[in-house]
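Comment thread on ticket #2218

A.B. wrote:
> Attaching the input chain for the structure job we discussed in standup.
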Amino acid sequence: MGKQDGTGRAGKNLPLFLALALCMISVGIMVLAFSGVFPSARRAEFTPPPFEAEALEGTPALTQGDGYSVLDAQVYQTALCGRPEVRDGAVFLYLTNPESNSVWLKVRVLDENGEILGESGLLRPGEYVPSVRLGPVPESGASLQLQIMGYEPETYHSAGTVYLSVVIP
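C.D. wrote:
> Ran it. Output below, let me know if you need it in another format.
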């Protein structure tokens, strides 16, 4: 028999066994994470937004002279007033979902810090909403961000989001 160096086979394979054990532990943690065992790994429940209670059929009687124009978001189009007026605690955007669309639309009004000031409900194709009620009312000259969101009917999958900056006159 040959001479042994004292480390034996187990000593030579120790790094391999440690690496294998770490891989098995990592795979176990990933399986638990994806199964929802850890609270932080759970997805937030989606609550479909309600339809706009103040929605009107058709399109508003506004022109480009009023600041009203069409915005092409490729997947859908929308029209709104790019020079919105703020009065009586609401911003008058005249957000329109053209009848030619196949998506539902809604808008969020955000302040300069990204805080939500107000939002509409969903608009079906062929509907518009004159105004969106605001929590805090911005001052004249304030910059607002409009977040226009499109949803596929019934599934509520995203049809895309468009951001538009406006200044309150």
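A.B. wrote:
> Thanks. Noting for the ticket: The radius of gyration is 28 Å.
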